[in-house]
Amino acid sequence: MLLALLLLPWAWGALAASPPVPPASITLQLLQIDVFHNAGSTDTQGMALLGDLETHSMDCSTCEIRFLQPWAQQGLTPKQWQDLELLIHRYLFNFNRTVNRLAQHHGGSYPFVTQVSLGCELPPNGTSRGFYDAAVNGEDFISFDVDGGEWVARQEDNVAALYTRDLLNRDKGTRSTIQFLLRTTCVSELESFVQYGNESLERQERPVAVVFARAPPSAGAPAPVLLVCRVTGFYPRPVRVAWLQDGEEVGPGGRLNSSGILPNADLTYQLRSSLAVGPGAGHSYACRVQHSSLGGWSLLIPWEQSRPWGPGLAVGITLGVVAVAAVAVVLWRSRRRGYQDVGPGESSP
After folding, report:
1. H/E element, 334
2. Quick check: helix, strand or coil at residue 17?
3. CB 152 within 8 A of CB 142
4. Nearest CA among 89, 94, 100 for reference residue 46
5. Model-level pTM greater than 0.90?
6. Do 114 and 135 contact (CB within 8 A), yes or no?
7. What is the CATH code of the structural domain delimited by 208-303?
8. CA-CA distances (angstroms) from residue 31 to 75, 131, 336?
9. What is the pLDDT of residues 67-100, one digit of tens each?
10. Of the candidates 87, 24, 13, which has an alpha carbon nearest to the alpha carbon of residue 51?
């Protein structure tokens, strides 16, 4: 049943030399989400991801494969894609029937949601890794140990998970097939997709970074100043952001905090890193950004204590520019009116 799814330039700051960020592993991941309203009604959606690129999707109102990248249809003939759709239909039918039986056997209550993630990962240098994980209502339920070739319950105190594990492990033929699919078939398809989608995967977008300070509250005892380094617009996802104090990297600890890498709407990424510093400490601070798009260099964005680029200063600069523009317009209009008041043959006062 798994065979069907398995076929599926600029920045603020100075540049400084740095070791390149190592390339990340490439993953082919297939996601399946089922909403079981009752024993006879189920909504299913699926998608395929190559790295962080969504390549295929399926909404089972029609259960047709949609190709979301220009190269996503390559590698298989139209007839093979049609056959694949039929296999997916059979797989989904059997999957839903099995889940409903398990729910009825253990007195499960509707509605509930199942989530399945399966695929393989190919490191730059190393052996591939296959995975199959299933969850119910957002909680880990069962997974397949590819190396051991058996199902594992993710909750040892969950009777339904233990029953499902034992039931699936009785079928040795299917376990061997799943092992082969995740170790061999998936890797072959992953390498094929990488070949056709190489240009999309190698897209490089340089990060834009800015440092500003959030001042502590005015009342009360002196509090640490929070320095924030906002990095956005970079692609691919791997990035390194570090703080330097007097030229030395600040080690991990309670002073540091990070938002983690978050997606942007334009298929790039963003990250915020903050550092708490003591008021009037007298040190120099800078944010260092390392990314593959910088070609072995890194961005160094210093924090200038005399001119902190915080939101308050940005608003002040904006208001100042507006005020200067308003004065210029008034002067221009008054001078033009003075010229228009002087008639032919008259001299200006």
Report:
1. helix 311-340
2. strand
3. yes
4. 89
5. no
6. yes
7. 2.60.40.10
8. 20, 12, 68
9. 999 899 887 888 988 888 888 888 888 889 989 9
10. 24
Q: What is the DSSP string of 258-282?
A: E---EE-TTS-EEEEEEEEE-TT--
Q: What angle do CA 27, 263, 260 make, to 5 degrees?
A: 90
Peptide bond into 236 cis (omega under 30): yes
**Packing angle, helices 159-169 and 78-105, rounded to 10:** 130
Q: How remote is the C-alpha of 315 from its chain's centroid?
A: 31
> In this structure, how many other beta carbons lie within 10 angstroms of the beta carbon of residue 99?
20
DSSP code for 25: P
In this predicted model, what pLDDT tens digit does every residue of 201-223 receive, in sequence order? 888 999 999 999 886 656 555 67
Rg (Cα) of the chain, in Å, rounded?
Answer: 29
Q: Which CATH code of 3.90.180.10, 1.10.10.10, 3.30.500.10, 3.40.50.2300 fits the domain covering 2-8+23-201?
A: 3.30.500.10
